[in-house]
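User: Hello, beginner here. Can you help me understand these amino acid letters and fold codes? It all follows right here:
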Amino acid sequence: MWNYVKTGFHAAKGHAGIWLLLFLYQFAWGFFLFRWINSTVTPLLKRYPGDTLSSSDVMLFWAEAEFWLTRTKEVMPYVWMLGAVLLARMVLTPLLNAGLYYAVHQRGMTGKRSRRPFLRGIRTLGRAFTIVYWLKTVAALLPLLYIVPWLHQLTLSAGSWSLYMGKGLPAIACYLLYLAVLQLIAMYVQFGIAADRPALFSLGLLAKGLLPASCIGLAILAIAAAAALFSASVSLFWAGLVAVILHQIYTVIRPFFGIWHVTAQHLHWKEKASL
């Protein structure tokens, strides 16, 4: 397992151009969310009465906010703008994945840099990757139709916080495990698409090597979480220029963990496919 992780790390370093592109993509998305929240949500929160006024003023604030959201159309321009950006993200993300997976596959199979593999992957695999991405999104959202109402009802009926956590946390943990397995399924299907192999072939490889694939994902996730925790801890306990620099460095290297995961899993897929 560690051999896949270590070799995948060195393979990921060979995709510096894609790393930079993914960083700019995530930066643009985060910058839009920041500007959107700062221009829409922050002005509303400034009107919040706070603890200095009576509870009736707070209730009046929330009643007014509910009326403004449900009975007027003033919120619709913001909703349409956010929806348009989310739709654009759902269109662009699978195209970027197509370019990444194609480049990783070509480099992993030949051991050489091919000319413009990223753009060629978008052209040849973009449609198939879009279908897989949308199916994965639908499969991820469907359980929420049951989980969210169930958690809401549990919040209303639970007599204590410990009872709520005892029932709610296992459900949330199961859902997160479901998302992890769903991500692995989509990843291996996309490896098959990049190699022009049937989806059932890749799913069979995943079923046979589910434990190593899960360990690879957990190892890289643990490293990424440790890096995020270190960055947050420095910012919390050692505020200053060094903390700002470390936080910005983590922002730059964060997309690398995603590429690293793809290259490590592809090594595992390639080894299983060659048997």
About this structure: The mean pLDDT is 85. Residues 76-110 form the longest helix (35 residues). DSSP finds ten helices and no strands in the chain. Residues 1-46+209-275 form one domain.
